[in-house]
């Protein structure tokens, strides 16, 4: 029972919210967003539109099925025959059914984001496969109806039944969960149990060009192409006159749908579309002049947020009919930047950067947009800063001065160097103080008009923002200097006192200050909240009331109270209203005005309220109207989606995407979770995401978080893409969620994936590393053992080397001793040799001397022999001569000489005899003497021959030694 009560209450609340949200604003034109073919990059023609349960928008485009996620557009599929898509329908499982040209089927999304199309034409009997466009596709229960002029194709339980017409089908309709068809011969037929049955009075519809049927409490309404609307009551067609008939009967109606709250949207081929209520009142007429891209409307669809999507012959438009804000524009649309606005004598006046304009406000509110236009006030072409009603007189303050406005004309009150605004003196209601470009001016009321008096002396500062307190002190805000408190003298022609307040007086800053009067209290807007003057200290202090509701961190750009003592404000980027509750207290209302962010003219924010509840905002985008009776739900839930995931390396390798033909067409399980496992080479990923929220989508902010890589969510930002590079091997989850302009946070979208380790960090790699490590350890151990062996061997070698070195040292010492002994022996030998040389030399000299004596004696004997030729003496002399010859031959002395000579000259004689055996003993003796470097004269006595005989002997020896004539025999003997 409790659950039932809770459900009942929730259902009731939802019903009330939908009913309130269904109210369509009549004043002004809803905000329109145009999506041109250049924007969505597909064919210009679009024929149908739908939204799935997640909030994704789909369009039947000439090129295929077009998708829009709030950020990106893309063709996501095409029929098998590549024909244009004409109609769309969707079931409860988000399966999209498509009617094309000569083809129809359904589309389902795969786990990798792709959409897979399945044609159902193969289920049609062969004889019925020749058909043209499928103009309508409708899902009712578990049946899907595809309508062509050649027949109705009913898809159920994977079978298709075909219903043919006795004549020709002209159109098809869905009404109260039933299917109707218009037949050229039988009129309006109802499909029941796969059979077409004529309704009562069906034949009266023959020949009518019916566009759609609208259900009513009594029966239904017939929407025709050129004849307007008809009520079908009690089987009679009664023309239903509406305020839109003048359009519907001449503009060729193309489509019509029922909107919640008893409204009907009717599109035409030549005049855009209209919205009428159930009484036939014209609520909206939106055409190209009102902001539509073109006049040819092909279809409508109301989305989950209550906004209207309009497909056109050339483009797609998004119309925010659920918003309480609208733009005050007309077919002329003169206004540009709006600096001020005012309702006066049923006329709406707007001050722009191009002059002052007005229109008939009462006629405009009645919906007569086609005949109501803004008209220029003649004589005013410069920027109009302010307009106001002062004692029932409308004054305009402009670059060239002050003007009084009467109807559609302006009268110059005063030519000044520029006028900003005017305020009436508190206690002198006939005096008006005007703030000018360089000081203050005074106007006085005379004969129901304001008359210029003079410029007030003593103050020459620009006075754009002024207000007056109860004591007639004039507070002037200079945006770049501070606040001036000015008091006039008694004659009001000069300044009696001036006080100046800036940061030194307590303000948080000296710039961007303004002054306002709220509930008879002078307040100051600053960059850090609202301030007031402390009466006791005269310093500027924060105001407690506004500190509570607006805080102290925002730039207060505007404060203004309305007729119900509610306070309107512009604080930072937010516009809002502090509402006074009936039971007491206040509450803040900001959400309806979030669309105004960034639309104001900086420094010239203006809000105009009226006693009828109309609120006007002057912006850079024209005049915007707000009506608080139009309620809208700002807390609608929506989803974020991940549009695409791609690997950056290799370049743009798509992993997940709904874009057409960017992934392999392999069909996957739709229910299977997509969980890509990526190699390490694809560890740089690019994510594209969006929010399925279309109201000011460019203002939607996002935050994201890559679980497994980042510790927390990012800051909110407008970025719809995120890149990650150099991701380590891990399991990751990418989260993203959105926050729309109303601060509603979406359901988050996630994308799970895994990046594998590089080959060198895989299990097999670690196993290999383990094996290699084991091999390395084994090699190290073996190497250590080898080193141990080597060290032992080296130790042994070192020891052996040391031993050898010791031995070598001993040997060296021994050799030194031996060398010393050898030196001693050599010295002894040299001494002996020297002695022997001396002996040889001495013997040789003696021998030479002896031989010379013997030769001399022999010579004397020869002479004696010649002189004494007697026999006795001759014999004796001969005998003496023979003895002398024997001594000269010196064989005994030679043997002793040869022995000593060989010892001294390395067995010279033996070596020479061995090398040259043909040498005679005399030759050997001559060679020995040559070795001793004796000359020829010294050799001759030793050989006992003459010098000539020595030369002859030398010659013979040269021949035996085989020396050339150029060779020196002495050098040869010395070097032998």
From TrEMBL:
<keyword id="KW-1133">Transmembrane helix</keyword>
<dbReference type="GO" id="GO:0006355">
    <property type="term" value="P:regulation of DNA-templated transcription"/>
</dbReference>
<dbReference type="Pfam" id="PF07495">
    <property type="entry name" value="Y_Y_Y"/>
</dbReference>
<feature type="transmembrane region" description="Helical">
    <location>
        <begin position="763"/>
        <end position="781"/>
    </location>
</feature>
<keyword id="KW-0175">Coiled coil</keyword>
<keyword id="KW-0812">Transmembrane</keyword>
<dbReference type="InterPro" id="IPR011047">
    <property type="entry name" value="Quinoprotein_ADH-like_sf"/>
</dbReference>
<dbReference type="InterPro" id="IPR013783">
    <property type="entry name" value="Ig-like_fold"/>
</dbReference>
<keyword id="KW-0472">Membrane</keyword>
<protein>
    <submittedName>
        <fullName>ABC transporter substrate-binding protein</fullName>
    </submittedName>
</protein>
<dbReference type="InterPro" id="IPR036388">
    <property type="entry name" value="WH-like_DNA-bd_sf"/>
</dbReference>
<dbReference type="GO" id="GO:0003677">
    <property type="term" value="F:DNA binding"/>
</dbReference>
<dbReference type="InterPro" id="IPR011123">
    <property type="entry name" value="Y_Y_Y"/>
</dbReference>
<feature type="domain" description="HTH luxR-type">
    <location>
        <begin position="916"/>
        <end position="973"/>
    </location>
</feature>
<feature type="coiled-coil region">
    <location>
        <begin position="800"/>
        <end position="827"/>
    </location>
</feature>
<dbReference type="InterPro" id="IPR015943">
    <property type="entry name" value="WD40/YVTN_repeat-like_dom_sf"/>
</dbReference>
<dbReference type="InterPro" id="IPR000792">
    <property type="entry name" value="Tscrpt_reg_LuxR_C"/>
</dbReference>
<dbReference type="InterPro" id="IPR016032">
    <property type="entry name" value="Sig_transdc_resp-reg_C-effctor"/>
</dbReference>
């Amino acid at each position: 029972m409790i659950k039932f009560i809770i459900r009942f209450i929730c259902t009731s609340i939802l019903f009330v919210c939908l009913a309130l949200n269904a109210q369509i604003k009549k004043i002004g034109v809803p905000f329109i967003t145009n999506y041109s073919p250049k924007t969505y990059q597909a064919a210009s023609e679009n024929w149908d539109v739908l939204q799935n349960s997640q909030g994704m928008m789909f369009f039947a485009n000439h090129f295929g099925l077009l998708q829009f996620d709030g950020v990106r557009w893309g063709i996501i599929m095409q029929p098998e025959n590549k024909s244009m898509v004409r109609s769309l329908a969707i079931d409860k499982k988000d399966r999209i059914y498509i009617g094309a040209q000569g083809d129809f089927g359904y589309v389902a999304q795969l786990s990798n984001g792709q959409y897979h199309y399945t044609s159902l034409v193969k289920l049609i009997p062969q004889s019925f496969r020749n058909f043209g466009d499928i103009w309508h596709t409708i899902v009712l229960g578990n049946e899907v109806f595809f309508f062509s002029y050649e027949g109705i194709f009913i898809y159920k339980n994977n079978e298709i039944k075909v219903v043919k017409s006795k004549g020709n089908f002209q159109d098809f309709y869905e009404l109260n969960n039933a299917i109707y068809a218009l037949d050229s011969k039988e009129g309006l037929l109802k499909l029941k149990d796969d059979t077409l049955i004529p309704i009562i009075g069906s034949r009266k519809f023959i020949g009518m060009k019916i566009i759609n049927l609208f259900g009513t409490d009594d029966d239904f309404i017939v929407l025709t192409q050129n004849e307007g609307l008809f009520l079908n009551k009690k089987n009679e067609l009664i023309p239903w006159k509406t305020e839109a008939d003048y359009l519907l009967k001449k503009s060729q109606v193309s489509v019509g749908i029922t909107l919640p709250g008893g409204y009907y949207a009717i599109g035409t081929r030549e005049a855009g579309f209209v919205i009428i209520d159930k009484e036939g009142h014209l609520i909206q007429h939106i055409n190209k002049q009102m902001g539509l891209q073109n006049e040819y409307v092909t279809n409508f669809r109301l989305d989950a947020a209550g906004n209207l999507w309009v497909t056109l012959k050339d483009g797609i438009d998004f119309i925010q009919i659920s918003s309480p804000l609208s733009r005050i524009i007309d077919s002329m649309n003169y206004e540009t930047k709006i600096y001020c606005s005012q309702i006066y004598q049923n006329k709406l006046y707007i001050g722009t950067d191009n002059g002052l304009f007005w229109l008939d406000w009462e006629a405009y509110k009645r919906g007569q947009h086609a005949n109501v236009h803004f008209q220029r006030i003649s004589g005013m072409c410069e920027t109009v800063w302010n307009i106001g009603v002062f004692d029932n007189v409308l004054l305009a303050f402009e670059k060239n001065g002050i003007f009084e406005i009467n109807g559609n004309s302006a009268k110059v009150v005063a030519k000044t160097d520029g006028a900003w605004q005017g305020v009436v003196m508190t206690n002198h209601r006939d005096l008006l103080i005007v703030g000018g470009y360089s000081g203050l001016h005074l106007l006085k009321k005379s004969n129901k008009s304001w008359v210029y008096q003079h410029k007030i002396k003593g103050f020459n500062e620009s006075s754009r923002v002024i207000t007056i307190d109860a004591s007639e002190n004039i507070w002037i805000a200079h945006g770049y200097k501070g606040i001036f408190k000015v008091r006039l003298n008694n004659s009001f022609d000069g300044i009696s006192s001036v006080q100046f307040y800036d940061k030194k007086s307590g303000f948080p800053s000296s710039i961007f200050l303004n002054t306002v009067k709220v509930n008879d209290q002078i307040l100051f807007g600053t960059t850090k909240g609202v301030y007031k003057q402390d009466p006791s200290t005269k310093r500027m202090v924060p105001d407690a009331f506004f500190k509570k509701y607006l805080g102290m961190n925002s730039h207060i750009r505007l404060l203004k109270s309305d007729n119900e003592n509610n306070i309107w404000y512009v604080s930072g980027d937010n516009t809002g209203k502090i509402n006074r509750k009936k039971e007491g207290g206040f509450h803040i209302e900001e959400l309806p005005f979030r669309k105004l962010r960034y639309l104001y003219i900086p420094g010239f924010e203006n809000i105009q309220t009226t006693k009828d509840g109309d609120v006007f905002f002057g912006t850079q985008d024209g005049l915007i109207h707000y009506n608080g009776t139009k309620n809208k739900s700002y807390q609608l839930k929506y989803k974020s989606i991940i549009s695409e995931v791609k690997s950056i390396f290799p370049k743009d390798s798509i992993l997940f995407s709904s874009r057409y033909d960017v992934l392999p067409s392999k069909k996957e399980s739709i229910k299977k979770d997509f969980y890509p496992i990526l190699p390490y080479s694809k560890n740089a990923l690019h994510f594209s995401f969006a929010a399925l929220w279309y109201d000011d989508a460019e203002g939607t902010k996002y935050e994201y978080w890559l679980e497994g890589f980042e510790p927390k969510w990012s800051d909110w930002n407008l970025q719809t893409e995120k890149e990650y590079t150099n991701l380590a091997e891990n399991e990751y989850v990418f989260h993203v969620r959105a926050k729309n302009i109303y601060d509603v946070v979406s359901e988050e979208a996630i994308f799970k994936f895994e990046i594998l380790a590089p080959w060198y960090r895989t299990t097999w790699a670690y196993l290999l590393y383990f094996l290699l490590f084991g091999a390395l350890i084994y090699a190290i151990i073996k190497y250590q053992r080898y080193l141990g062996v080597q060290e032992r061997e080296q130790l042994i070698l070192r020891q052996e080397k040391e031993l050898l070195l010791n031995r070598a040292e001993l040997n060296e010492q021994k050799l030194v001793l031996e060398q010393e002994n050898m030196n001693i022996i050599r010295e002894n030998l040299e001494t002996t040799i020297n002695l022997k040389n001396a002996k040889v030399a001495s013997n040789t000299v003696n021998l030479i001397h002896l031989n010379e004596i013997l030769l001399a004696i022999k010579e004397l004997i020869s002479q004696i022999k010649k002189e004494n030729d007697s026999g006795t003496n001759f014999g004796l002399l001969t005998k003496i001569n023979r003895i002398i010859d024997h001594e000269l031959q010196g064989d005994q002395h030679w043997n002793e000489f040869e022995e000593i000579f060989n010892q001294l000259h390395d067995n010279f004689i033996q070596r020479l005899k061995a090398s040259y055996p043909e040498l005679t003993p005399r030759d050997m003796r001559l060679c020995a003497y040559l070795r001793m470097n004796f000359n020829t004269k010294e050799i001759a006595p030793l050989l006992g021959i003459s010098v000539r005989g020595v030369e002859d002997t030398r010659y013979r020896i040269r021949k035996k030694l085989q020396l050339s004539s150029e060779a020196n025999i002495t050098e040869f003997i010395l070097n032998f």
